[in-house]
Amino acid sequence: MVLTDVLSQYIIIMVTIHHIPELNIFRAEENDKEVGRIEYDQEEQTITITHTYAYIEGRGIGRQLVVAVIEYAKEKGCMIIPQCSYARVLTNKSEAYRQLIAEEAND
Questions:
Q1: Domain count of the chain?
Q2: Exposed/middle/buried for 50, CB within 10 Å: 0-12, 13-18, 19+?
Q3: Residue 87 exposure: Cα atoms within 13 Å on the Cβ side
Q4: Would you state the pLDDT for residue 10?
Q5: How far apart are CA 100 and CA 16, in angstroms?
Q6: CA neighbours closer than 13 Å in the CB half-sphere of residue 107
Q7: What CATH number is attached to the domain comprising 85?
Q8: What 3-state DSSP class applies to 76?
Q9: 47: domain range?
Q10: What is the pLDDT of residues 34-57, one digit of tens each?
């Protein structure tokens, strides 16, 4: 499925996102091939997004990974520290996402 994201004006390719909690990653796959991943650390009720990798740029893969972590954090009642620069930019674009940023992330 191909969608156009009006806000970013990128062509968004929907990928399958797999959460692998024992490795602290979310993995993006397209046609059974890894096309991106996001790494995080979790301590109690805080999730620190450490790295976002999109192996094909400009297709919305990194965005989908960050959103997957945000949705996971909301489900678990966690706050987010977007240590990764891409995640920080994306979370700061939305008031709903900014409300999930932990206070210590602003220090």
A1: 1
A2: middle
A3: 25
A4: 53
A5: 24
A6: 5
A7: 3.40.630.30
A8: helix
A9: 2-106
A10: 999 999 999 999 999 999 999 988
